[in-house]
Write a structure and sequence with these properties.
about 800 residues, 44 strands, 5 helices, 8-stranded antiparallel β-sheet, 24-stranded antiparallel β-barrel
Amino acid sequence: MRIDGVLDEAIWQSDQSFYFDNFIQTRPNNGAKSAQKTKLKIAYDDFAVYIAAKLYDSEPQKISRELGPRDGFGKNTDMFGVAIDTYHNRQNSFFFLVSAAGVQIDMFTTPQQEDVNWNAVWQSAVKITDEGWVVEIEIPYSAIRFPKKDIQTWGINFYREIRRTREESYWNRVDPSVNGFANQFGVLEGLKNIQPPTRLSFLPYVSGAVTNDDATGTSYSYGGGMDLKYGINESFTLDMSLIPDFSQVQSDNLVNNLGPFEVFFQENRPFFTEGTELFGKGNLFYSRRVGQTKRILREDLGDQDSLVKMPTETQLLNATKISGRTKGGLGIGIFNAVTKASYAEVYNKESGQTREVLVDPLTNYNVLVIDQNLRNNSNITFLNTNVSRSGGFEHANVNGLDFSLNNKRNTYNISGFAAVTQRYARNTETGNYIPDLGYKYSLSFAKTSGNFQFDVSRNVESDNYNPNDLGFLRAPNEVSHNFSVGYQTFKPKGIVNRFSWWTGGWHEMLYKPFTFSEAGLWTNANVTFTNFWNVGLQVNASPTNSYDYFSPRALDQGRYFKRLPWGRATLRMSSDSRKKFAFNLRVGAWTRPAWDQVDNWISFNPRYRVNDRLSFSHNLNISRRRKERGYANTTNADVSFAGDDIIYGRRYVNETTNTFVMDYAFNHLMNFRLRVRHYWSDVQYDKLYNLTADGDLTESLPGEIQDRASEIRNNNVNFNAFNVDFVYNWQFAPGSFLTLVWKNAILSQVTGIEENYNFGDNFQRNVMQAPQRNTFSVKVIYFLDYLYFKKWFK
């Protein structure tokens, strides 16, 4: 069958053979019939399932057709999609969508998320007609998984979006007031004698790059590797990456981190974002740990040694995933990766020699997930993560159990999570491993459907709980309770399309010592009007003193910083995104009256669509924090000793972020994106304080600080991060891509400054005159599929 959007094959010829039904709206008018009619038909053979749809439109000249990249949400375009629950477990689905411009989007949905990073190779075509538009889709059986049996029973639903009216509708009604997605599908029966195929595909690649660094000069690199996907059986797939290349991933959004906690960075590497929905529970798997250096020298340096170069990452040797789900609803996921040892360069002044010092040993990362679907959209999951380092260095093991239970009507939910962390450090004298054990548990009860909803929860983390060898946790040592109550509407009334109002509160204590930390209340209201403008307001307040045990960086947890009551308000507004010009706006204020501290921020995101090919967007974020009290330094480098002088300062923190994006699409298979981001943080101190034992601040500084003015100036920081990412992408064959990338990176940090720069002076002095790094790279990936070869040579 030829997929071209022209329904001239015999199977599509009879108009009476098309299944007809009025779709039911999800929004804006939940439960009403769609304003436009849709006809569709399903066919199948021993290779694929086929879908043809006629999407009638009374004003076909107004069909929205903005082009964009594959998997690019947020474009101004009509959409059609099919979601298939092949195991009919009413929880998970493969969702295939195509826009009126022909752009494909695919995702894997679970009760917890929509994984748009899941990708399959399938074919589609669209055609605009005098009556509306036509969609033709071919989904090979190799793109999905289904049970091995004579007659298939699948859950199925069809989706349509009419962008100019912001109407979203489904063939089988999806009620937004009901919790869940796949549990609201219809049923497809009668697919006979189709067999799960041999699922075997290869993605070989070749790449080359040239890098010019002002500090190190010009270098060249080239390489090749391959991704392999193999269907072990009808349920499970092996996904392996051999010598992966991640040089073309988007640059990280770097910031000046003044806080005590690690900054969370989004994962942009394709292998770690695709098909990882099973691994995401409990924050036990943070894939950025794989390839991340600990930046710890594994031997002591002498007086004559100086550090020349520290590695920024470790090389990934290989990575493997096995994942799938049986017809009984048992999901199993296995992830394994190995990273190469990394070394720092150390120069010895006495010998004049440079040597390598181990930083990261050869490391193996492993994740195991076993997830069982239960009745009523419920599930229970066991998780294990393990990190093993060669050479007798530290190991880590984490076991977790997660569950989510719903009642029959899917209106109430009880969920919980428990984990035990085991970290083993080697005693250098005895050679034995010393265990460090920690635990966590959380429990929540919620009403999840209907206009009125609520949630109450408890979370406990011991002081030694630490999943961070492979997971992500900003800080343990917590006993917290949260509650929220909300009311939502899902049908238009008057000038209001939708309305929601939630209010809640929190209470936090330290686990050890068991003492009060913070409490507060919040409320949030949001209104979407019938003209599709949106307005929201959120107010937060902590009316009592709070006690911060983390910002002093006191490892024994004996020191704390007393913070006085505070309040915050944020106003949100967004315009109608159907228009050529649209924007999002957030403005807010934060105050701590006792310190005369007033902060303000604004976020403005205008977007302009020139035509269906070209669009621009700009994201401006400005934050001004005035008279903020924050940690500056500690007079003793080892803060675990009692009696250290912990220095705080009164500071003015100005942060400005500009992100500019230009998207241009030549057609639905070829596009480029230019992304430019500049982040500027300017920190100026005007006072220093000593943190007292009872958490207050005193201007009596320790004797080591002789020159107060100089010490104040030494803490000032001017930080800039500037990045350019230009990406040209061409899908020249199904699943095959040519990608050209230019990346520019500038990073500068100046300390001890006295003068205040304006934006122009700062950009000229600290960005344009700073060393930069430019990389040009090309990569070709070609998709080879066993079934396509088999079909061609029949």
